[in-house]
Amino acid sequence: MSNKRNVTFIGLGTMGYPMAGHLSKSSLVNLRVFNRTMEKALKWNEEFDGEVVASLEEAVSGADVVITCTGRDEDMMEIFFADDGLYPHLKEGAIFIDHTTTSFKLAKHLNESLQEKNIAFIDAPVSGGEAGAVNGILRVMAG
User: Which residues of 18-90 form beta strands (DSSP E)?
Assistant: First the structure.
């Protein structure tokens, strides 16, 4: 039996791309990545190990941990609650970590929605910029 966790990373932008890259080097995870732009996900996969998936449903189905790193509140709302969003497919008892710098209102809404499915929510914006992400020296503020 494997002790590896099934981890999904969503959002391969300026910060998420290198963050997911660092995570891919861990021997403790089976990593899936999703990005709304498939070309960016495929480019990431040329540099790093992980399974690139084409839909949010495929990305989060069976994931023990889901990590998001998007640009704005609107991006998170779309990824989370849209008709083809991830919310209905999240595994009960999973952990959801959001590295997006979102508003308090959205973080509260995500937390309340996730509680309905017995999913732990960690609001965890990061500080350190692109250089910090590339060099693996970000500061995470978790709440």
Answer: 29-34, 51-52, 65-68
